[in-house]
Each structure stands twice: as structure tokens, then as C-alpha cells.
Amino acid sequence: MAGPEEDFWPEDIAKTEMVTPVSMMRAQAAILGQKTNNQLTASVQPISGAPPHFVWSFQITSPSLGGYRYEIFRVQHPLTLYPAVFMWEGHANTTVQDDRSFKDFLKQIIGSDQTKKIVQALLAQIVR
Amino acid sequence: MPTFLFWNIGGKSISQLIGAAALAVDADCVVLCECSIEPGKVLEGLNQRAPDYQYAFGECEHLRFFTKFDSRFLEPTFENARISIRRLTLPARKDILIAAAHLPSRLFHSAESLAQECVILGGYIQTEEEIVGHKRTILMGDLNVNPFESGVVGTSGLHAVLSRSVAARGSRIVQDREHHFFYNPMWSHFGDREDCPPGTYYYDRAEAVNYYWHVYDQVLLRPDLLEGFSGESLRVLTTAGETNLLDLAGRPDKANASDHLPIVFDLTF
């Protein structure tokens, strides 16, 4: 006779405090529009075709340049999120093992002179 | 019909040679790779006879575009440091996408890494094709992989085949997924042929398998553009005007020109 199905799942299966790489990237992307009066915006786009990894592209968009998009960096990670690899032009690929290290390196890219130069060049192009 | 010139100039200050090459083939669009020369200086070379050429805006560090037509017709849509995808809208012609790429150096990246770069490049191109709603796309660049390598040939990569008639099928289904072809005419530019170099780049490596000559510099075309492309128009240049781009050993003269040879082709669209 069939009884009630047993539940093998742990009680805390749905509880997680892990922050995903893409959510951290999107949070930073959302801020750029505010900082530039929406002359530039940023987004995080999935790049297809590189299984078994997820690949995300951090892109700056200029609505007034016909929707022109410029990719600042890419991040690749497995289903389990870490280790995640940053691919940032002019720098060796950087692997981070957890969300704290991810946040630190993301901060380094966003705050870099390299990123600032691109943003300022695009803004200059808009007002030209 | 517009003539396109692609040249990896290897970071050399050779604006006069660039001008000589462009003028010799009457190029309408010049795409320079590894160009650290200021655009104004390049224009001095390109416009040595007449003020014909313009610099076409872009933020891609590795690729610079110059046009004989109004540069506003060549609008960048997506770029990163190594890839520039642009929409070319010339009057009275169908608009096309021009993708240019300089993939990471083979000297510092494995074949597997380069294959993955091809996959990602293919993804960017597909995204732009979906945005514009057509597949009239050409890709030119220093891909740092040969036409026969998996990143160029594979379905998840650029899916570029050596046969025009195969490419003309448009696409094929593999594992329930549709994959669109590119045609890669560069296969016809391998090895010794009369008056042609055996490749576009020479590298002598002390290891068992050594091709010596490579065809890293390539142009790939979607089937929708094949009708306006003649393989005969595709040339690997060995001279820039009166200047020989090969050294005494018959290899790219990297001392006086570049370690890569330019490629040029015509396209009607």
C-alpha cells in the first residue's frame, strides 16, 4: 500500500545567501544611467554558445548613438557560480573563487581609468 | 562595387605604406588592425593624392576604419576592444553588416582558447543579425586561427566552410539546432600558387608540427552575399604601390612593413 511520499530534501534547500555574479554586475549596470543622466546606460547580456559555462557581457549602451554598445568585460562561470573568470582586455584572465572576491574585482574594473576613458569618450562623442 | 582592404599592420608606423596599398587597389573601406597610429596620421597617408578618405568613429582599440564614402554610412553597433560590428548603409544599396575582429594572439593563447573566442565572436554576430533582421554579413579579421581549425569550421563557432555551394545551402541542422553558414574563400589561398604568397602570416616554430605559413587574416561571407562576391577579386597583397611587402626570403617584411600581409576583395550588394 502506498503511503505518503517521503521528503528527502533538506529543510533549508531553498535558503541561500549566495549572490550571483550576474546580479552584482546588473546592480552596477543600473547605476551608470543615473550617473550620466541616462546619456549612457549599461546592461549585462548573456553570450550564447559557450557551454557548459555561462558567459555574461557587461556592455555600455549609448541611446543617442543609435543604440551603440561597447563591451567592457566578460565573465564566465559554471552552473555552481564559482570559480568565475573575468575576461578584461589588457589584463590576464582573473579567476575568483567566491562572491567577495568577485565584488572586489568588479569594483576594480568599474573604477579603473580604462573604464573611465571609454565612458568619457562615449559621452564626448554624444555631445560632439 | 566597393573594395575592402584589411591589414594587420603589427603596430608599425607605416601610414605612407597604408596609403600606397589603399590607393593601389582603390579601396573604398580600409580596416586596420593593431593600428597604434593616430587616425589623423593614417589619413595623411591615405589622402596623399587627394582628400578622399575619412576616419569612421569607433572605440575598438584594435581596429580602425577609414572610408572613401561618408563615414556616417558605416555606423558601429557593437564593439569591444577586439571586435567591431558595423552597419553599412550606402545609398541605393541594401544595408550590410561588417564585422571585424582581432582575436587574441596565438603566441599567448591555446588553440582551445581561440576556439572559444570564435564561439563568442559567432554569438556577437548572431545577436547583431537578429537586431538588424538580416544575414547580409561579412566578417574580416586577423582571427589567429587557420580556416581549417575547429573554431572557424565548427557549428558553434563561425561555421565557415570552404565550398561556396555548401555555404549556399544557408544553414544546416545539427543536434536539433539550426546553424547558419559562412563561406570562407581563404581556403584557396593556402600554399604555393603563381604570383601569390603561401599565406598571410609566417611563423617558424621549433616544434614537430609546423605549418610555417598561416592564413590568420580572413574574410568570411554569409550566403546572402555570395552572389556579389567573386573569389577572383580576393587577393593577398605582396606590394603596396611600388613597395614590396615581402623580404628577400619571400616572407612578410616585418622590419619595413608588417608581419601580416593585407587582404583585399570586392563586394557587390
Describe this structure as you would to a colleague.
The mean pLDDT of chain A is 91. Chain A has one domain (21-127). By secondary structure, chain A is of the alpha+beta class. In chain A, helix 1 (21-35) packs parallel to helix 2. In chain A, a hairpin with a 5-residue loop joins strand 2 and strand 3 (68-77). Chain A has helices at residues 21-35, 99-110, 113-127, and strands at residues 41-47, 54-62, 68-77, 84-88, 94-96. Chain B has one domain (3-266): Endonuclease/exonuclease/phosphatase (Deoxyribonuclease I, Chain A). In chain B, helix 1 (15-25) packs across helix 2 (39-46). The chains are: A alpha+beta (128), B alpha+beta (269). At the A-B interface, strand 3 and helix 3 of A face strand 5 and helix 3 of B.
Number of domain units of chain A: 1
* CATH class placement of chain B: Alpha Beta
Mean pLDDT of chain B, to the nearest integer, reads: 96
Largest sheet of chain B: 6 strands, mixed
Give me the side-by-side strand order of the main sheet of chain A: 1-2-3-4-5
Count of distinct structural domains of chain B: 1
Strand order of the largest sheet of chain B: 3-4-2-1-19-16
> What string, H for helix and E for strand, traces the elements of chain A in order?
HEEEEEHH
Summarize the helices and strands and which ones pair or pack.
The complex is a heterodimer of chains A (128) and B (269).
Chain A: H1 21-35, E1 41-47, E2 54-62, E3 68-77, E4 84-88, E5 94-96, H2 99-110, H3 113-127
Antiparallel strand pairs in A: 1-2, 2-3, 3-4, 4-5
Helix pairs in contact in A: 1-2
Chain B: E1 3-8, H1 15-25, E2 29-33, H2 39-46, E3 54-56, E4 63-67, E5 74-79, E6 83-88, E7 96-102, H3 111-132, E8 137-142, H4 150-153, E9 160-161, H5 164-167, E10 171-174, E11 177-180, E12 182-183, E13 201-202, E14 213-214, E15 217-221, E16 235-236, E17 239-240, E18 243-244, E19 263-266
Parallel strand pairs in B: 1-2, 7-8, 9-12
Antiparallel strand pairs in B: 1-19, 2-4, 3-4, 5-6, 6-7, 8-15, 10-11, 13-14, 16-19, 17-18
